[in-house]
Amino acid sequence: MANLQHIRRRIKSVKNIQKITNAMDMIARSRFNAAREALLSNLPYVAKTKEIMRRVMTQMRGQEYEHPFVKTRADLIADQQEGAGKFLFIVIASDKGLAGSFSSNVFKEAHDTIEYDGTGESISTGEDDGDDENFHKKNFDALKGVKPVGTRTQKQQLQVSATGGIAKATARGGATGGNVNVAREYHDADYIDGIELITVGRRATTHFRQRGYNVIKSYHGISERPQYKYAKEIADLVVERFDSGEIIDVTLIYTQFKSAISCVPDDVTLLPIITDDFAKASATLKEEYIYEPDVVKILNDFLPRRLATRIYGAMLHSAASELSSRMNAMSNATDNAQELVGRLNLFYNKVRQAGITNEINEIVGGANALE
Amino acid sequence: MATILLEVATPDKGEVFSKDINMLITRSICGELGILPKHARLLTELIPHAMRIKVDGGETQLFVGGGFMEVTPDKITILADSAESPDDIDVDRAKAAFKRAEERVSTYKSAPKSHEDIDIDRAEAALARAKARLLVKGVPIP
Q1: Quick one: CA torsion of A281, A287, A291, A292, rounded to 10 degrees?
Q2: Measured between alpha carbons, how far apart are the two ends of chain B, in Å?
Q3: pTM of the full predicted structure?
Q4: What is the C-alpha to C-alpha distance for residues A255 and A321, in angstroms, rounded to an integer?
Q5: B10 touches chain A (CB under 8 A)
Q6: Which residues in chain A are closer than 8 Å to B68, comparing Cβ atoms?
Q7: What is the ipTM, given to two decimal places?
Q8: What's the rounded Cα separation, in Å, for the pair A85 and A87?
Q9: SS3 category, B132
Q10: Which residues, 6 or more positions from A55, have their beta carbon under 8 angstroms from its beta carbon?
């Protein structure tokens, strides 16, 4: 039979945990408000940059201005066929855990994106606790089943229609019969060699280091409160490596904040910028821009600025998502603790009552015996 | 009088200015520009300075710490690294920043070889920003 002291001790420990989760919930809540505020005040800037970007790119389409960041889809596919450079992925996750499935969702999206090539063996995919031996394979097969090109292309089209994600999906061997030759066939080691990562958040860094990826730079301690200067630093590094031709493709993986209850991992291609995607809107634009002093100088200023803006925006999205996930996780934990305490209390009282009944029975039995 | 919409946005503070104005006088990396309604499409980079905004006969100033400007016939969009109205400028801070930046620049200029740790571009940008802030406030530059 359960021992009263034992149950009391358990109730106490559950209550203590509840206090902690409750405190974490409140902390996350107040930080979340700040993060959401920051995100909201960043949105107009991002939207305006995007608007200008669209207009400039629409203009560039007709002209043959050369800029290393701007390519047509045909150029991109040719580049990837040559296999001239590496792919860079920027993964934005959190520093700390206890935020529900926030980090693992990002990693899942990251692996889906990074390892997506539709051919060959997939390397260590999966979640943190993938102790199931066959997990990788299963996961890969599932992956293959779920997104052969058709669906993937569609999904990409929706998400990143402006950035050439489709070209990548197909160029990576994704799909349609004709493009299969374009696929790079990686052996695991080669594959990892062709990939570089920049991580934001301690958890992202450890996750990818453990799996043997080449993390060229990581940022810790800024995931909850991102600052523009870090985004600028990342953008500068990306620009430098892209300019030197070491990398030919930059993808950003982060969590998009939609609302306090809905945060969706998302991947966008940052570089190169594919002009083909800007085609449709071009009919409306006939006038030419005056570039002061000249188009190259302006694009050299504007494109890195746009890059930094997008990275910063993604960091803010990720921060708001992280904190809202933590808020949800912690308030669920607090509720569960409350429920557990209730159940334990009931149990405690039952045991106590059983003890008392027992004692009375003994007394009554003893008294009866004396008569 | 004809008007043109001016919008100024910064990464941290969102849209700080959004209003129909008569004329904007601003300084790009190529020199001073006056922009009136129905201006041709233009893209340029701004240096840190105080823009002059003419509305209804009056004139207000807005400090921008560098940025990017797009002009279309009916709208001016400025993506500023930072933007402040003159009332928000902290003179003491600007003075301190001016002094710091000036020291760095002059140390570098005196012997560029031995001070390679100084990021001269950054120091000069900081100097320009501080100078522009002080100019807006009418503080004499030492």
Answers
A1: -140
A2: 41
A3: 0.75
A4: 7
A5: yes
A6: 52, 301-302, 305
A7: 0.78
A8: 7
A9: helix
A10: A285, B70
